[in-house]
Every structure is written in C-alpha cells, then in structure tokens.
Design goal:
The protein is α/β, with parallel strands linked by helices. Helix content is about 30%, strand content about 30%. It has one domain: 60s Ribosomal Protein L30, Chain: A. It is built from three helices and nine strands, in the order αββββββαβαββ. α1 (about 5-15) packs across α3. This is RidA family protein.
Length: about 160
C-alpha cells in the first residue's frame, strides 16, 4: 500500500472524509511551507464542523476518548500535508509533533494520549512518521477540544 492509500484507510477508520474542509479560524494558515519545511498549525479533533472529543481528560473524558482525539488531530495534519504536496510520497519525514492535552490536575498519562498520534503517523508513513515529540497537559484548548496536535515536517526536494 502507498502512503496515500494508508491515509485513506486511516481516514475511513476514523470516519473522517479525506476531502474534509480544513479552514483556519483566523488570520493564519493551517500549513506554511518554507522551502522544504512544513509547519502545521495545531489541529483539533474536528470532524466536519464538530469537535469530536470535548472536555477535560481525566474529568469526563476517558483516556481512550483522548487517544481517539489525538488520532483525528494527527490525521488532519497528514491531510494538510498531502494537499500541499499532492501526495504523501513527497514527504521526507515528520520531524516533530507537540500534543496538547486539556486535562484534570491529577491526570498524568499525557504520553499515552500522544502515543495514539505517533502510532497513526507511523501507520501511515512508516519510518518517515517516527518523530521527536512533546506531550503537554494544559488547562484549556480552543473550542473545548480535549487534544490539539501541531507538527513540523519536511518535504523531498
């Protein structure tokens, strides 16, 4: 299977149409390309116009729900890269991701939430999806999203 085929399969598994509209909510771009570098703005777990998982992880949102949100957020980043490059075959690698988890004060499983995003990137991209990563617990995220994921990647010349 190609990367694009694996992306389509992941989108189907997450019930996220691969042609879903990904629009910024302000005066910024969801993806900026500077030479070979791709900077992907924070992606919320949005399916259509709805945030799929809202609330605080560890206080109303389960670990499994947060992991689902992380997968959707990472998928949206991949969709943006595919649109920019025309195909994920033009992607050299994902270099870094940051996973923000809106969580309760006593929640400590940030890395387990982030693992879901990392696993999806590896599933679609293979070794090119293995990256450096930071997982951070925060008090609030836009639209009350449980998770937000941003990325830095590089394209082939």
């Amino acid at each position: 299977m190609t990367r694009d085929e694996r992306l389509r399969q992941a989108a189907a598994d997450l019930q996220c149409p691969p042609d879903a509209d990904i629009q910024p909510g302000g005066h910024y771009r969801p993806l900026v390309r500077d030479g070979q570098q791709l900077y992907i703005s924070g992606q919320l777990p949005r399916l259509g116009t709805q945030i799929a998982v809202q609330g605080r992880v560890g206080d109303g949102v389960t670990l499994d729900q947060a992991r689902h949100a992380a997968r959707i957020s990472a998928l949206r980043g991949l969709l943006l890269m595919q649109r920019e490059l025309g195909t994920l075959e033009g992607l050299r690698r994902v270099a870094r991701i940051t996973v923000y988890v809106q969580c309760a004060a006593d929640f400590t499983q940030h890395s387990e939430v982030a693992d879901a995003a990392s696993d999806l990137l590896h599933q679609v991209l293979g070794d090119a999806g293995v990256h450096a990563r930071t997982a951070i617990g925060v008090y609030q995220l836009p639209k009350n999203a449980a998770v937000e994921v941003d990325m830095v990647a590089s394209a082939l010349a």
